[in-house]
Amino acid sequence: MTTTPPALAINNLRKRYGDVEAVKGVSFTIDKGDFFGFIGPNGAGKTTTIKSIVGLLNFTGTIKVFGHDVITDYREARRRIGLSPQEFNFDRFLTVEEELSYTAGYYGIPRREAQRRITQLLKRFKLTDKRTKRTENLSGGMKRRAIIARALIHEPDILILDEPTAGLDVELRRELWTELSRINKAGTTIILTTHYIEEVEMLCNKVGIINKGKLIAFDEKERIMEELGNETLVLHTAKPIPKRILDGVDAYIEVEGKRTRFTGKGMKQKAKALILRVEKSTPIEEIDMQRESLENIFVRMTTEGTAHPEGKS
Amino acid sequence: MNWVGLSTVIHREVTRILKVANQALFPPVISSLLYLAIFHFVIGKARGQSTEYLAFLVPGLVMMSVVNNAYQNSAFSVFIAKYSRYLEHVLTMPLSYRELVLGILAGGIVRGGITAGSILIATAFFVTPQIHSIGAVLAYFLLACIIFGSLGIIIALWAEQFDHLGVINTFVLTPLSMLGGVFYSISVLPPTVQFLTLFNPVFYLVDGFRYGILGSNDAPLWLGALVLGVLAAACFSLTVHLMGRGWHVKE
Q1: Which of A181, A157, A200, A197 is nearest to A30 (CA)?
Q2: Residue A231 confidence (pLDDT)
Q3: Which of A167-171, B155-159, B161-165 is the least confident region?
Q4: Interval B60-85 mean pLDDT
Q5: How many CB atoms lie within 10 A of CB A286?
């Protein structure tokens, strides 16, 4: 029986720039078909990790892409990776079509097949009428679409997108989300770094949070949100809840007149008892249950010395 | 071997050269013709030995231009790619570093070929064209392209600004060419200088290429072939190694 190796396996990745250790022993595994959101503050080590995967950094540790070591078996590993880097790295003298055509060639795709794929990708990324334009003359949004099209020219098994939506307007961002979901549903593993946490919450099934070079959270998105996230029970009452009722409740409590918020872990399970307790003294007009957003969890986990469950200080 | 990949690197290099073909074609032809004119009409006629000397001069001028063009082609190609970050893109492709270096060197060979061919054609008006050994001509031409094309790649990887490429041109290539027996036979030099010239690789290139054209040479051919063969292998291996390490490109 053969087992399929993971799409990406990083083991004890370390990277030092002079005296600064940018990545401090990061290990994680991404399975085939995952849509992985890799988030962290600026300088946390996201781009360093990505550059290590694609061979643009010297590092210690091991990285395997579908079982192929990115150092010792770099050609096989790279055949499977499609990269959309954070900073555009086009040949400024080439047109969009030439850029895609040369990249197809580097991957060893014969000319006729390359032409077929280029036509498809240009159409899919709405660049057909820009195909003879030099990449340096494209707008930011078009450049982003062109670089993602370029990353897909060899139909990679794993697509790595480093901040693909930075600088895009809302409409373009939404279009890109739709396209990325489609690519992932078709079987391509995706690794996405972004500053828009809502993107990760919406698109990804797996999340990793990196801070100061260390992976501080890594799991299925739902589990992260369940285990690390708080829940908030909001009660709208006919009059303010008396203090004696609130005393001793195991939650972070915020009172705003007739609206009271109870925040804590497992609030869903505690809600019934709490509602019964409040109702004894004060009629309840409306009940609302809120789940902490991934963005809040992220901010809370990456902000030092924050005890407040909602990340406010 | 990723043949499609290699041919793509070559295609990109050659297309780039053809876009700036006038740079490969005109400057070396003009400067070579100027040298010939000066030596023919001014110096040669005064000394009464013009024709023979011009025939002696042509292979050296060709080799000097080939050395320069091979260096400049790879230096500029790699530096521009590095500057625009395109080199980072290429370094993430499934090309072996050997394929990548070979592809870039092939560009220098094409440019060197255009240069050499155009000088030989242009000077045919002054000197009766001849080729003593086509094998030697091609071998020394290729050795020049490999050695100085590799040097160009190494310098481009190291360089942080355009000026750095020119520094090597001024302080290394020009002196090596001028003192490499392009304009004279080393037999006229004092013994010490003659001995020192034996450490100049351009001398062996000029001497060997001149043998290929005229059939005459200063140093033993085996010595030149040995020195240049070892040097070409070392330069190529070092370039492949540095490209693989991403010297001054990867952090």
Answers
A1: A157
A2: 86
A3: A167-171
A4: 94
A5: 10
Nearest CA distance, A138 vs chain B (angstrom): 16
Q: What share of chain A is helix, strand, coil (3-state, %, to 5)?
A: 35, 30, 35
Query: Across all residues in chain A, what is the average pLDDT?
Result: 90
Residue-level pLDDT at B126: 81
Pick among B20, B82, B93 to test the A interface (most A CBs inside 10 A): B93
The predicted pLDDT at position A311 comes to 38
CA end-to-end span of chain B, whole Å? 28
Q: Which CATH architecture has domain A8-223?
A: 3-Layer(aba) Sandwich (3.40)
Q: How do A8-17 and A60-65 pair as beta strands?
A: antiparallel
Kindly tell me if the per-residue pLDDT of A283 is higher than 50: yes
Residue B39 pLDDT exceeds 90: no
A chain contacts of residue B88, beta-carbon cutoff 8 Å:
56, 85, 89
The answer to whether the Cβ–Cβ distance between B92 and A55 falls below 8 Å is yes
* Chain B positions in Cβ-Cβ contact with residue A55 (cut-off 8 Å): 91-92, 250
CA–CA distance, B224 with A127 (Å, rounded to integer)? 55
Fold of A230-291: Alpha-Beta Plaits (3.30.70)
* Chain A environment of B90 (Cβ under 8 Å): 106
Residue B71 in domain: yes
Average per-residue pLDDT in chain B? 90
- As for how many domains chain B has, the answer is 1
Amino acid at B240: V
Which among B228, B247, B95, B243 is positioned nearest to A78, based on CA atoms? B95
Q: Does the beta-carbon distance from B91 to A109 stay under 8 Å?
A: no
In a domain, B250, yes or no: no
Rounded CA-CA distance A229/A266 in Å is: 9
Q: B54 pLDDT exceeds 90?
A: no
- How many alpha carbons fall within 13 Å on the CB side of residue A166? 14
Give me the domain span that covers residue B82.
Answer: 3-245
Residue B200 lies in a domain: yes
List the beta bridge partners of residue A109: none
For the segment A184-194, the average pLDDT, to the nearest whole number, is 95
Residue A220's DSSP bridge partners are A206
Q: What is the mean pLDDT of residues A77-85?
A: 96
Judged against a pLDDT cut of 70, whether residue A112 lies above it is answered with yes
CB B62 within 8 A of CB B48: no
pLDDT value of position A305:
44
A159 DSSP β-pair partners: A82, A190
Probe site for chain B from A69, A91, A158 (most B CB atoms < 10 A)? A91
Residues 6+ apart with CB under 8 A from A282: A237, A238, A239, A240, A241, A242, A245
For A303, the token pair is 């902000």
Distance separating alpha carbons of residues A159 and A168, to the nearest angstrom? 19
Instruction: Please give the Cα distance from B197 to B206 (Å, whole number).
Output: 12
Residue B236 within a domain: yes
Question: Residue B50's pLDDT band (boundaries 50, 70, 90)?
Answer: low
Does the distance separating the beta carbons of B85 and A89 come in below 8 Å?
yes
Domain boundaries of chain A, sorted by first residue: 8-223, 230-291
